[in-house]
Target: RNA helicase
Amino acid sequence: MGKKSKTPAVPKEGKDVQGLEGTGKWSSKKRKRLDKYITKKLQKDEKNTLMEKLNQSQFHHKLMVSSRSLGMPISDPSVPLFVDMNASTSTQTAPPVVSKVQLGTALKPGQGIGILPKRIKPNNKGKILSAKEILEKFRGVKNDDDSDDYSDSDLSDSEEDSEEDDDEDEEGSEEESSEDEEERIIHTNIDDLMEIDPSLKRPEDRPQFEADKPNTNVIQTTVDSSQQQKAFYINVQRTEKIQEVRQNLPVCGEEQTIMEKIRENPCIIVCGATGSGKTTQIPQFLFEAGYGHPDGENPGMVGITQPRRVAAVSTSVRVGEELGDMGKFVGYQIRYDTKVDKDTRIKFMTDGVLLREVSKDFLLQKYSVIILDEAHERTLNTDILIGVLSRSLKLRNKMAQEGKPGIKPLRLIIMSATLRVQDFVENQRLFEPTEIPPVINVEARQYPVVTHFSKRTELQDYVGEAFTKVGRIHQKLPKGGILVFLTGQNEIQQLVYKLKKVYGPKKKNFARDNFVENKDNQIGWEAEDYQNDAGNNKVIEEDAEEDVIYDSDLDDDEYEDEEDLMEELREEAKQNPTQTASKDQPLYVLPLYSLLPTQQQLKVFEPVPEGHRLCIVATNVAETSLTIPGIRYVVDCGRAKEKRYNIDTGITSYEVDWTSKASAEQRAGRAGRTGPGHSYRLYSSTVYNDYFPQFSDPEIFRTSIEGTILLMKAMNLDKVQNFPFPTPPPLSNIIRGENLLEYLGALKSKVKTITDIGKIMVQFPVNPRLGKMLSVGNQFGCLEYVIALVAAITCGDPFIKPDFVSNEDDEMDEDDEDRKQINSKAKRDYYRSLQLHGGKEPTSDLLRILNVIGAFEYEPESNQATFCENHCLRLKTLQEIRQLRRQLTHIIQIYFPSANISLNPKMSPPNAEQRVAIRQILLAGYLDQVAVRAKYLDPDLNLKGMRGEPYKIMWDSEIPSSGDSNLEKYVYLEDSSCLHGKKILPDIVVYSQLDKTSSGRVLMKGNTEIDSSWLTSVCSTLTKLSKPIVLPTGQKSLQSLISKVKSNTSSSDPTRIVSVTPYYGPKAWKLPDLKVLQELRKGKWEDKEIL
Model:
């Protein structure tokens, strides 16, 4: 049968058709068609009427909610949805109110919008309803549906949509006769059916709006004026260049989503890889929305934290540039520098700065939004901030809802460069199940990066493998910067030296054309070797297979893909000859690591000299903190040097280990910032899959936490184990931290609450040990010296230990000989400087640094760089020491004005009495880091085979095993210590740090010689005394001693002299007997003075 016509036919003449309420015979199908036609026509007219009213309304930002709420009860019954039949034709509509266009508008339920009628299904078997009855039914029905899509087509168009219903009717209504199917419907005027006054003007069809030309007539709400929130927007004028750059950032495409989530949720998480623009653009989104403006709804500043000072300063400068004339409202605050004033609206800072602020103002009332950037790095300060802000956020928002004066809601944004957010969203201590923050994933602006694994993994000489790989890239691949990741300063300097030597601009024939394998089976530069083994490193020596891990899972397809890739690169080079790497083009090699002076660090951002290829050799500092332009090739050694801290022993070690998979992906992503790139991994896929952890351990597992515990105690968070850490530390670490604070006198012994001296210690932004030294340092005029020492310990050793050349190479060319002579001279200069500043009778390595600080400050500023170079000193460290001295002095002037201290750069050297007092103050801070000479504890100890004089520490039972029983039991003085060269080594020393070398020896750094009698008087919390033995008073020496003591006191109480044996530390070290003068007070003998 042919398909039915969609055009309704005119009924035959003579048929009884009396309208909708007539008694003519109708089939169910025709009834359904007519009812549907009427329904759709009504909806079309209602929509046109509604759109006309919407065009005459005004916008309100509270209407920005989901369309799911459409159909809620109307707030203004004076605006009906349907036309009133009895309305006067002279009713005039108020002129529309035109307001400024605001992007991102939407509708809010209950603000002047009527109820949409529920769609009535036609009654197939009942009587046919008239248009009036349908209209009455519509007016009495509530909408139960979220939303319906209605068609605006006429009756002929509606038949196509109803064919499915027709099929159902045909299946279920066999009783219909063919006569019914042949009947036709009279095309009746819809106005007559609806009984509408013909004098009313019909609404026009709905106008079409272009996306790029939004309608200027927006909705006018009828909400109560007391509940309205003023729309606020700041217009920022940017240059075309900046606008073009911003448009290419992925985060700008998510601006509306991010701002809606910020407005709807107290906390959100934004995940976006490095380069997505989240760090620079989200603060600008908030700024443009009125956050931070004094006249806006959220007048508090927008605070952004960074884990590094360089990132905080550079990011603030960039955001200020992008804001143009508004850049004056952007500031930053780091440890030694502040550029914040009363007009600042966006403030960048380090996480430590915000942590100090939240300890003084738990609600952070001067902020409206806090952004925690780089949360994936899981630094200790960031983890603590997340825990604290999860509580202050809830408290402040609750106070704002209660209408507390001056309290506005606070928003928290956690930003991460990886999807490592499970510790945040799945931690019920942080966020309750009903308060889990939404996660917004922003795609990175990333070009495709091809990752190449090596066939074999070199476990020893990976620096040599990196050198080989860089050489191949430089000679065979098209132009583009090379970024090499190594583990530390020494490795970087070694590779930079080799690259400059072979490929530097001074080498004319550095290419070594047609260089082939030599007798040692070194890999050559032959093209066929490179084609067959591109991206798959071999070991340098054939017989070194036991030292490597072979990647047995590497498929042949990978080799084919690699060959195809190389073929593509060669074709690209032929098509673009200017992009081809020239053999005569030198490498522009630059190092990059944290201890490098700032001026040299900034060289990586400067333009590359013409005709050179950029090659940067860096540590993991280049993973996320810095974005280096022009990088196309990444060479990843797959390792990182991390600081490991043993909580049990206090031993610090820097160990090289495999990095995490997340870090490896971050490194590879550096090659795809400006164009397609390639990442060459100097390890196999098997090593990557089997040995690389998914993420690195949080810093809270790798560092001491006593400072964090003290800060929490100062904030009245007494039960630290209940604190909502994103990743809680082991309970044993918390207990050890509390015990140390108790030794220092910062916590009470039983209740573990903060003491008065603990409240003083927490004011200083340094380790609690150093805070204790500052709190007791105002004795004998030693405070300025103690401030300098605390600054030096915090900033690090200013002496530069030269990198010595190995003598293992049998063959050395002239450059190697010259370098060896230079380093030999540097070695002599280094030890000469140590001896010069140590003094004639050295007693402390830290006093030697104090001498260096004084000598540096006495030098004219123009000569300070030369002074540091001649004395093997690091200028950057000494400048940081000066800045920290200034900061600590300022804190003491504010909180302890009675100290009467001022910064005196050119301080005079301490006298003999002050030097003794300084050593005792050092003991007060490091009272649990005492080492005793092993021979002093055990005179019969056999020292045969030991290299150096061994010492025992208080916690040596936890020293890790290294295969040598002597190394497991003892520690040693560092070779560069001023105490190491003394003929008679001190019996007892206090150290500031324990470092474990690669050979397994544990060395003491920052050593200070102390007297055994000081342990009893200065470190009473760790000292126990035996029962006193009364000495006979008949001895002339004792009688004269008693007379001498009484002559200095006016007390008339009976006295006696007793002998006691002190025991120190957890192992109860027996110290020399002491004579103590006691007085009888209220029937009890009390210690008065140690004689």
User: Anything to note?
Assistant: Residues 28-55 form the longest helix (28 residues).
